[in-house]
Write a structure and sequence with these properties.
Blueprint (H helix, E strand, L loop, with lengths): L3 E10 L18 E10 L2 E7 H5 L6 E4 L4 E4 L1 E3 L11 H8 L4 H6 L3 H11 L2 H17 L2 E7 L6 H17 L3 E9 L8 H18 L5 E6 L6 H13 L3 E2 L2 E2 L7 H8 L3 E4 L5 H10 L2 E4 L1 H6 L8 H6 L5 E2 L13 H11 L4 H7 L2 H6 L17 E4 L6 H4 L6 E6 L2 E5 L1
Parallel strand pairs: 1-4, 1-5, 6-7, 7-8, 8-9, 9-10, 9-11, 11-12, 12-13, 13-14
Antiparallel strand pairs: 1-2, 2-3, 5-15, 15-16, 16-17
Helix pairs in contact: 5-6, 6-7, 7-8, 8-9, 9-10
The chain binds N-(iminomethyl)-L-glutamic acid and fe (iii) ion.
N-(iminomethyl)-L-glutamic acid binds next to helix 4.
Amino acid sequence: MNPLAVLHAAQLVTLAGPARPRIGAAMSDLRIIRDGGMLIRDGAIESVGPSDEIEEKIAEAEIVDARGRVVMPGFVDAHTHLVFAGNRLDDFERRARSETYEEIAKAGGGIWSTVERTRAASEADLLAEAKKHADWFLRCGTTTVEAKSGYGLTVEGELKILRVIGQLKEQVPLQIVPTFLGAHAVPKAISAEEYVEIVIEEMLPRVAAENLAEFCDVFCERGYFDSDQSGEVLSAAKRHGLKIRGHVDQLTNSGGARLMAELGATTADHLEQTDEQGIVALKKANVQPVLVPGSVYALGLSRYPRAREMIEAGLAIVLATDFNPGSSPTPSMPMILSLACTQMKMSPAEAITASTINAAYSLNRGDEIGSLQPGKLANFAIFDCEDYRELAYWFGIPQTHSVYVRGKRILKL
Ligand code: NIG
Ligand code: FE
């Protein structure tokens, strides 16, 4: 592959900086180079700087003229439920009639209805749907996603989803980090205790032995798994060498943030109901919050997580889509940036940091993606706007111009 030179970006948003997640004022420091350029060789970034300096080094490079456009690291989406069958249009319509997430679940909708459809789908059909979802992410400028299981809820059902994630990884340019979420809901006809035992004794050993996931997650919530059960699952996962994340304090405050701190989780996700003590606990234990405002929006709720307090407390916030058919049917990180700025009062710069470099660290990949720095993978997106703030400002309109993974253009819109 010839080297590639990206030149004359109106803004080259590098997010260069120390090799750690960004907190406090550092979240606002995007290290933008005007009329910026970069040289890419063998899929990695070789140099970054003002275009005229890069131009001196380019000899036989293929040139991408980014004049009038923003170039930035591909978004890193650290919380998605990418593999599922079907949709939840009936839930959507019920919500429009003011029924709640819990009421809809009791009436036969909710996670369980997606479980039934996902169980019934063949591996080939699931893979085909997942490929469509992967393409959506790329079109929004996302180059890495975390992807959870959780719509199988039997040993074979969960392994099937994780195998589909594994195949997807091989077949699409989107980079994927797998997470095992066996404890997503309690299957019908057994108790939460009985199911937790299956997750721990039967699922986790297979997931670990077959190397199907890097992380383990649970849904710690009233009607799903309580703190003790969530703790048991995540502790077992740690013994198998998995890192841990958790859906906590989404609909009720069950002390989930504190639990994630005690367990030494990598991330605590959702946190809509987390209070000040929860925030302090996360900080002490160095847990990264993953905020998913798309699910608040799409559920028609109004209580967003306390992002400003979290930033003031020095937490390395991550933003993610929570892409799933029930509570957050969007693959669009620009939509999440819009919500972060309008509903959670994050600045556009903080939101960009949270959806790139901080997200990369939360997936254990801060050393290879999330910023445009020499040595990192050339995973980047070019947007049809001149100022990065436009990504959060114009909402509901796609601005992606093209997307590159490992220096290869995989999408031109
Ligand atoms: O992150 N909270 C639990 N899991 C998802 C919803 C999944 C679903 O409704 O299918 C979430 O919001
Ligand atoms: Fe989720």
